[in-house]
Specification:
Blueprint: H1 9-23, E1 28-34, E2 52-56, E3 59-66, E4 69-75, E5 81-87, H2 90-101, E6 113-121, E7 128-136, H3 140-143, H4 149-159, E8 170-174, H5 181-191, E9 196-201, H6 204-207, H7 211-219, E10 229-234, H8 238-241, H9 245-249, H10 252-261, E11 270-276, E12 293-298, H11 304-311, H12 322-331
Parallel strand pairs: 6-9, 8-11, 8-12, 9-10, 10-11
Antiparallel strand pairs: 1-5, 2-3, 3-4, 4-5, 6-7
């Protein structure tokens, strides 16, 4: 087998592993894509050592072999990995693959851990790439006291939503910076974890401007539980939903509305959660029209009496945002 001088080492390992499959000496192949791999996982059957190893930026890949089988494990970015086994029989390939993949399992998730995907575009006009992570997110009851009473009732209702309660497809949280909108979204992901897959789009300004990227995110990746709804989180979308969005963002606003209330979203169990620092009076009227939003909630500063109770000290007449309260508490 010949390799050019510029051949990537991961490709070399993969080619060496596939050679017995190509020649027919090990005609059965099995593979597994693993989204999260424990850093200390061997990705090898117990008692087996790697024949060849390659490490790049802390990601270790290897080739191993045993009686009538060959294995290659390739570590990817964001903690993912691919394991492929070739063997003389399908049963043997299944057995070796299961033993190797079994070492990859992370710790048993606790009640507050939630799988979250992070999407970003690959190159100009490229498809989206989803990096899955498991995050420790707060339950709503643990942070409920951080929000003004004017917002808590609506947030209580949102946190309690289940699939049969869904009417509109858009969730809009708006208010000044530092009021806890992102933390509320994190709690929402926790409260909906049993029935909704949560994905955070890291580049929302690109998502609705690039039809190819939007299509890849909307269609998503194949999931074991296809019954789950999906929640796309887009943060700090001031330009997308502001009063001048149609003029400044071109087709971006139209595609957002099409996803939540048009042909693009038909047949897809997708909700979109937007956060913005814009005042509701400055939002585009098409975004907040009746029937489009499942929830439209203003998350403002705590008024003086509530802020003083939270802080345990007197505070100015204008009240304070959550960020300001934490800063004041740290200064005490």
């Amino acid at each position: 087998m010949f390799f050019g001088g510029n051949a990537p080492m991961e490709g070399v390992l993969n080619s060496l592993a596939m050679e017995p499959f190509i020649t027919g000496s090990q005609p059965h192949s099995r593979a597994a894509e693993i989204t999260e791999v424990s850093p200390d996982a061997t990705l090898l059957p117990p008692g087996v050592s790697a024949d060849l190893t390659y490490e790049l930026d802390g990601r270790r890949s290897h080739l191993a072999s045993g009686p009538e089988w060959t294995l290659v494990a390739l570590r990817r970015r964001a903690g993912a990995a691919t394991v492929c086994v070739c063997a003389t029989s399908g049963d043997l390939a299944d057995e070796v693959l299961a033993a190797a993949v079994g070492t990859a399992r992370t710790a048993t998730p606790g009640e507050s851990t939630v799988p979250v995907g992070f999407w970003h575009v690959q190159g100009c006009g490229g498809a989206g790439l989803r990096a899955p992570r498991t995050m420790d997110l707060p339950p709503w009851q643990a942070i409920r006291g951080n929000y003004p009473r004017s917002a808590v009732t609506a947030l209580d209702t949102l946190m309690a939503v289940r699939p049969q309660d869904i009417t509109g497809r858009l969730i809009l949280l708006h208010g000044p910076a530092g009021t806890g909108k992102t933390t509320a979204v994190r709690a929402l992901a926790h409260e909906w974890r049993d029935w909704c897959q949560v994905d955070n789009v890291l580049d929302p300004e690109v998502l609705f401007a690039d039809p190819g990227y939007l299509t890849s995110v909307v269609l998503g990746e194949e999931r074991a539980d296809n019954r789950k709804w999906r929640l796309l989180i887009l943060e700090d979308c001031d330009e997308l939903v502001g009063a001048d969005a149609k003029r400044d963002s071109g087709q971006a606003l139209s595609r957002l509305l099409n996803l939540t209330d048009g042909l693009l979203g038909q047949g897809l169990d997708i909700l979109v959660c937007l956060t913005t620092n814009e005042n509701v009076a400055r939002l585009h009227p098409a975004v907040v029209r009746p029937g489009r939003c499942l929830a439209e909630i203003e998350v403002g500063p705590l008024p003086r009496d509530e802020a003083a109770t939270w802080l345990g000290a007197d505070i100015g007449a204008e009240g304070a945002t959550l960020a300001e309260l934490y800063r004041l508490r740290a200064a005490v």
